[in-house]
Amino acid sequence: QDLRVAVDKQGGRDDYEAFLRANFFGCALATRRQDSASSEYVVREGARRMEVVFRPGADARHLPVALGSMVAKYVRELMMEMFNDFWLQRAPEARPTAGYYTDGHRFLREIEGARQSLGTPLELLARCR
Questions:
Q1: CA 96 – CA 20 distance, rounded (Å)
Q2: How far apart are CA 40 and CA 123, in angstroms?
Q3: pLDDT tens track for 42-58
Q4: Could you tell me whether strands 48-55 and 39-45 are parallel, antiparallel, or unpaired per DSSP bridges?
Q5: Are 124 and 108 within 8 A, CB to CB?
Q6: Of 7, 55, 111, 122, which sits with the fewest C-beta atoms within 10 Å of its C-beta?
Q7: Up-side HSE of residue 59: CA atoms within 13 Å toward CB?
Q8: CB 66, CB 60: distance < 8 Å
Q9: Predicted TM-score of the model (pTM)
Q10: Residue 105 contacts by C-beta under 8 Å, 6 or more apart in sequence?
Q11: Could you give the C-alpha distances from 66 to 33, 92, 94, 98, 125, in angstroms and in order?
């Protein structure tokens, strides 16, 4: 009841409505604001109400957001370590990647033979828009 949730905005995105609708299926959703400074929504189910506010830099203003961000970054590093271990066993000539855009493309080129021989779809390794 009357929960307020703060979330750090993700890279230039202003519209989180579809995300909220998918995750709070059956709830009423009201959009209060959607711009670069803030994206604000109210989710209702019967008498229960929750405000969800997405803002850039929320991790600097809210300790729970900062802790969540730190945990997510740590888990990402662990997952990338396992990802690199898997692929470097199959493509020993490849160099490890941190997975970011430019370096990720380099890595995909270096593991291409192993990826094809395993039949791994590219869509499982790279975001394809």
A1: 35
A2: 32
A3: 999 999 999 999 999 99
A4: antiparallel
A5: no
A6: 122
A7: 11
A8: yes
A9: 0.73
A10: none
A11: 23, 37, 34, 21, 28
